[in-house]
Amino acid sequence: MAGERVGKEERETKETKVYVEVDLDGSGQASIATGVGMLDHLLEQIARHGRIDITIKADGDLQIDPHHTAEDVAICLGRALRKALGKKAGIVRFGHAVVPLDEALALVAVDVSGRGFAALDLTWTGERVGELPTELIGHMLWSIATEGELTLHARVLAGASDHHKAEAVFKALARALGAATRLDPRLAGEVPSTKGQL
After folding, report:
1. Above 60 in pLDDT, residue 174?
2. pLDDT of amino acid 1
3. Among 10, 62, 123, 173, which one has the highest count of C-beta atoms within 10 angstroms of its own C-beta?
4. φ, ψ for residue 156 (rounded to 5)?
């Protein structure tokens, strides 16, 4: 991937080895291989619907469970986004989306504020969606927000299928991130804050 707004992050522990690269000015291309099908599927939504090119390669201790892999991928994704944003000059900064998926409806709002925080209202019927424990979905969103220095609000407004609810959340996250990280030509490279920095 080429461009000025590219971020890369690597993390290697006794539990995982993760590589993430993002290009904020991409076309929505995704090359994602975590070993957890549902995790790949959710992350692909960020690329496709946020128009952000994302490469993720993860090798984790899946013989135990997906927790370490999902957590470390989210940490690296947040850090890569933060690096790609740099000083955040000229970005829109705020973005939000309400996304339906059949009976499910999700709302996500993002502020590229420089302050990592997540407020989550997510409800699940079961313990897993595919091979991914549903409890990890909120944990991943929190990690992306804190490591990416984003303020993130995510809510499931309706839904019966955990698959539909999770996918709607990640599609809404994609749209919100895509909007918030776009360059606004009216700003002429200024940082969108009365403080002069984010």
Report:
1. yes
2. 39
3. 173
4. -90, 115
Task: Return the amino acid letter for 175.
Answer: R
d(CA 153, CA 171): 14
> Hey, which residues does 154 pair with through a beta bridge?
108, 120
CA distance 6 to 123: 34
DSSP label at 4?
A: S
- Using CA atoms, how far apart are residues 45 and 140, in angstroms rounded to an integer? 14
Closest CA to 55 of 20, 81, 27: 20
3-class secondary-structure state, position 67: helix
Torsion of CA 56, 61, 66, 67, to 10 degrees: -100
Which uninterrupted H or E stretch holds 18? strand 16-23
Phi/psi for 181 (5° steps) reads -95, -5
Angle, vertex CA 32, rays to CA 142 and CA 130, nearest 5: 70
Helices and strands (H and E) in the chain: how many = 4, 10
Domains defined for the chain, CATH in brackets: 6-187 (3.30.230.40)
